[in-house]
Methylase
Amino acid sequence: MKLPVAFEEKMKDLLGEEFQDYIDCYEEKRYYGLRVNTLKISVEDFQKICPWKLEPIPWIENGFYYDGDSIQPAKHPYYAAGLYYLQEPSAMTPANRLPVQPREKVLDVCAAPGGKATELASKLGREGVLAANDISSSRAKGLLKNLELSGVGNLLVLSEEPGKLISYFREYFDKILIDAPCSGEGMFRKEKRMVKAWEEHGPEFFSKIQKSIIAQAAEMLKPGGMILYSTCTFDRRENEETILSLLEQFPEFEICEMKGYEGFRPGIPKDDREDLVKTVRIFPHCMKGEGHYLALLKKGSEGCENTETNLERQKKQTVPGSAGGLKKIPEELEEFLGHLTLPLDPSRLDLKKERVYYMPAELPDLKGIRFLRTGLLLGELKKNRFEPSQALAMYLKMEEYDQVLNLSVEDERVHRYLKGETLDVSDLCSNSSQKKQKAGSGRKQKDKGWSLVCVDGYPLGWGKLASGTLKNKYLPGWRWQS
Ligand SMILES: C[S@@+](CC[C@H](N)C(=O)[O-])C[C@H]1O[C@@H](n2cnc3c(N)ncnc32)[C@H](O)[C@@H]1O
């Protein structure tokens, strides 16, 4: 592979006698990774149903290598059920090493297409809030899809310049991830076009943007909160020097140690900042990942070891909510909600035009921000009826809705459902002569109304049942090509 001369010279300087090992690894194959979405399934349960041979990624509890030359996990129904996300292994590290706890308020500043945001959401669970932002509105659309596919409901998907967010979210977040736009030197083996992009916009160009983003994020972090800064590049100007610029401007920050791994290399110290060695470099010749840089930082004087829990902090700081609730829940919505077994707080229901949302608690007023989604879209009120959304189907667990069509992954109707076809499901309905469901949930399916279509117990989407026929309500934009 032909690398730019200036890049090679820099890497020689950075790596010294390891340079040849680094160059040699360009002849090796890239690594493919699959991360189990623990919001939907435990690693143990996934391993029981996984159809492929996977090898654990040693520093990521829910990460696995797969053979990308022989299998295509994105074309399996479990992918459509949001059970995993496909991600380069070293890119799994930032969200893994940011210690997000359930119920926190978390911001992913540069989130599209959502590789890290989906993992932050899994760690958060169903409460708290994940604000996922990306300056590019077209990329933010892909981000929204990936978050919805992963079953994330307590979310905001924003598309703003981070400086604009400060006045809305000053000292609001417990944890912030900045996976900064960068020159992408760690992507050269995976995507050859990155070499050309590097020649057009290199480290100098990106370092200015990164310094500005990290300073803006610092203002949105609560005292005691943590930032994880990451890039997929090797240049010091985009890595250690971005951290130095933060520490100069905001001396209340300190660098924290993160959980180690034998392949991690320390960051490069400069002058009196010996603590930069606590930051982490991932090189492809030292471990099985393409390359990354990570720095974990804490704001305030409590020190990295302070153990005050998020709940203790929340008791001290409460922010009024902005959902306001509905004055009266429309009958058709109430009827639909009667089929759900999960507890919903009515004060968090919000109606915008005909769309009904379930909002995260304690949000500030978002008027004036460009957003693609606030909260979980439950569905739409149409004339005298309520139509549940694809996002709600993905959010639910099978046992949280009382009318389920559970198909086995072996059932050819799963693929046909994902392509948008109408299905004959009379064998699974309660008035049929063959009453037993093949891979059934053990429950009888009623004959009429909205059904949650599942594969092996994991929701895929909605269908509307009448006389043994399932009218397909899988979101048209998500349908598989024939
Ligand atoms: C490295 S990618 C993020 C990848 C993402 N975190 C993931 O894991 O899927 C960087 C992203 O930053 C966005 N970006 C660029 N400049 C930005 C800015 N000033 N503020 C917010 N996002 C920005 C880009 O559109 C791009 O999607």
